[in-house]
Write a structure and sequence with these properties.
The chain contains 4 helices and 7 strands. The protein is an alpha+beta fold. It has a single domain, classed as Gcn5-related N-acetyltransferase (GNAT) (Aminopeptidase, 3-Layer(aba) Sandwich), CATH 3.40.630.30. Helix 1 packs across helix 2.
Length: 141
């Protein structure tokens, strides 16, 4: 399977991919992706083919709410959208956090990001609120 855990060395390629997913994704700086790979490698997944990262998904626990996990970002290279990469990442991500005992996952996406809306809905996430930038969604296991 072309999904693996992110490594610190992936930070440059992941940053470039995230920058290409703007404006729907607010790319983080290289240091953020390095930090996430160091601290949350079990829930920082990359989809790779032919030694090229085509997508990634990363999240981390909400330390203020027991059992709650947050999706930080999901991104698939625009040329490869619609080929199931995001779904494979999402499925593997949910399997991982369930195996770690989390009972709820939350996320946030921009109002006009139809790709993100569809994939969150596909995996059963429901709108639970909004702010001035977009929707909050959640899934309770």
């Amino acid at each position: 399977m072309p999904i693996r855990n992110a490594k610190v060395k992936d930070k440059f390629e992941i940053t470039k991919l995230a920058e290409n997913c703007a404006p729907f994704l607010r790319p983080s700086v290289i240091g953020t992706y390095e930090f996430l790979a160091r601290c949350f490698s079990n829930t920082f997944l990359v989809y790779e083919e032919d030694s090229k990262i085509l997508g990634f998904m990363v999240g981390f626990p909400n330390t203020a709410v027991k059992g709650e996990f947050w999706i930080y970002q999901i991104c698939v290279c625009d040329k490869y959208r619609g080929k199931g990469i995001g779904s494979q990442l999402f499925k593997r991500f949910l399997e991982q956090i369930k195996s770690e005992g989390y009972t709820r996952v939350r996320s946030h996406f921009k109002f006009d990001n139809e790709h993100s809306k569809r994939i969150h809905e596909k995996f059963g996430m429901k709108i639970c609120g909004q702010d001035d930038r977009g929707w909050f969604v959640e899934l309770v296991f």
